[in-house]
């Protein structure tokens, strides 16, 4: 790839992804990752996995197919695994972090927030 073409590709990746430290993204192993650094000049992206805490999770901005995630998308990816069946089948059984129950669960997550404390629990704590 010629240098000018590489530069153009990186500029397009910067506009498309717009990733910065603190953002969440899905890496090439389908882990939700907290971004710790990005370098659009050298085609590098790295962070910490929200699945197992592995660090550094390094990817190419152009070649790995990373995508930016919302906090809800990151939580669903952690809890249920990849949503596409074809992708789920490619991940070896010993590397699957989600449980079969969570993958087939019908509960819809609309909002991710701390659990609410009931009046009974408040009385016990007091």
Question: What's this model, at a glance?
Answer:
The chain is of the alpha+beta class and 126 residues long. Helices cover 34% and strands 18% of the residues. It has one domain (3-125).
Oligomer: single chain
How much of the residues is beta strand, in percent? Answer: 15-25%
Mean pLDDT metric: 81
Rg estimate, integer Å: 18 Å
Structural class: alpha+beta
Domains (count): 1
> What is the count of DSSP helices, taking H or I runs of 4+ residues?
5
- Distance between the first and last residues' Cα: 66 Å
Low-pLDDT segments: none
Features:
single chain; 126 residues; 5 helices; alpha+beta
Q: Can you characterise this structure?
A:
The protein has one domain. Helix content is 34%, strand content 18%. It has helices spanning 3-17, 71-80, 85-90, 100-104, 119-125, and strands spanning 24-26, 32-39, 44-49, 57-59, 67-69. The chain has a five-stranded antiparallel sheet. The N and C termini lie far apart (66 Å).
Question: How are the elements arranged and paired?
Answer:
Layout: H1 3-17, E1 24-26, E2 32-39, E3 44-49, E4 57-59, E5 67-69, H2 71-80, H3 85-90, H4 100-104, H5 119-125
Antiparallel strand pairs: 1-2, 1-5, 2-3, 3-4
